[in-house]
């Protein structure tokens, strides 16, 4: 679909006219498998279809192939980050209808928000993305679709007790796969980290960062903070690295995964 200037018009006529009989498609650029499943389940629960891309380059290719109503992108991804992706989409949609771009980030400090704004991103959402925050953002940037404010009554409480989250997810079967995926990915992360040579500190940092991404989704703040401290120690040099803390951390994460798995049985 092209406008009179020849640019690609990314909003279908049925969507612009307020027809919600056809589900709009949200493009999601996210490299972490658990985050992918979280956003997918949230969007489906709110009545949207979605397409998942593992990085910005993949998202840009998908964007050119289908009509989407909105992009949700992680800021930091391999191959192409969210900032570069947003700039690319702004070039492709120049002169057409405004295409909403939302970014998910671990920090919403002023400098991060400015960086997003400079890239053409409309709004920053804090990770881990809550259903409430997502619903509010979709209401704001897709006003022609439907009012999603009534979804707030089933939201997960904003606390650090992951068992509360599990109880909630247990009531909604479509979310149970998210937990199983988190367990599987986290166990793979631990196995991969344990096989690394300690001289390859950068790979260990990347492995811990990936593991921490899943921990943050379930608001496991104590374990997430311990992972961040280990990453910081490695950044300062291997001499600052506390091996005992590293071993205890991986053991505690593994035990937590066993407990989480048992609650699903």
Helix content: 40-55%
Question: Which stretches are poorly predicted, pLDDT < 50 over at least 5 residues?
Answer: 1-21, 149-161
Count of domains:
2
Q: So what's the CATH class of the largest domain? A: Alpha Beta
- Quaternary structure type: single chain
The percentage of residues in β strands lies in: 5-15%
Please report the distance between the alpha carbons of the first and last residues.
49 Å
- The CATH homologous superfamily of the largest domain is named Response regulator
At the fold tier of CATH, the topology name of the largest domain is Rossmann fold
Total strands: 5
Q: Report strand order across the widest sheet.
A: 2-1-3-4-5
Overall pLDDT confidence: 80
Rg computed from alpha carbons, rounded to a whole number of angstroms: 20 Å
Protein name: Response regulator
GO biological process, one term: phosphorelay signal transduction system
Modified residues (4-aspartylphosphate): 74
Keywords: Phosphoprotein, Two-component regulatory system
Characterization of this structure:
The protein contains 11 helices and 5 strands, in the order αβαβαβαβαβαααααα. With 265 residues, the chain is α/β, with parallel strands linked by helices. It has a 5-stranded parallel sheet, sandwiched between helices. β4, α5 and β5 form a beta-alpha-beta unit. The radius of gyration is 20 Å and the shape is globular. This is Response regulator. It holds the Pfam family Hpt.
């Amino acid at each position: 679909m092209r406008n009179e200037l020849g640019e690609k018009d990314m909003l279908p006529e049925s969507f612009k006219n307020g027809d919600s009989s056809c589900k709009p498609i949200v493009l999601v650029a996210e490299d972490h498998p658990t985050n992918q499943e979280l956003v997918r389940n949230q969007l489906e629960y709110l009545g949207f279809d979605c397409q998942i891309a593992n990085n910005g380059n993949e998202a840009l290719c998908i964007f050119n192939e289908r009509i989407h109503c909105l992009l949700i992108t992680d800021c930091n991804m391999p191959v192409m980050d969210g900032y570069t992706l947003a700039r690319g989409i702004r070039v492709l949609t120049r002169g057409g209808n405004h295409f909403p771009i939302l970014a998910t980030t671990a920090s919403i400090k002023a400098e991060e928000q400015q960086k997003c704004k400079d890239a053409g991103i409309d709004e920053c959402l804090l990770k881990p993305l809550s259903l409430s925050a997502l619903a509010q953002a979709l209401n704001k940037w897709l006003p022609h679709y439907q009012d999603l404010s009534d979804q707030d009554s089933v939201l997960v409480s904003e606390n650090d007790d992951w068992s509360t989250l599990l109880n909630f997810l247990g009531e909604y079967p479509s979310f149970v796969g998210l937990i199983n995926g988190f367990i599987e990915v986290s166990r793979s992360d631990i196995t991969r980290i344990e096989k690394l040579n300690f001289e390859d500190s950068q790979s260990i940092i990347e492995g811990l960062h990936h593991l921490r991404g899943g921990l943050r989704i379930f608001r496991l703040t104590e374990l997430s903070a311990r992972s961040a401290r280990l990453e910081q120690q490695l950044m300062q040099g291997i001499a600052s690295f506390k091996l005992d803390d590293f071993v205890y951390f991986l053991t505690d994460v593994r035990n937590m995964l066993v407990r989480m798995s048992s609650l699903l049985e």
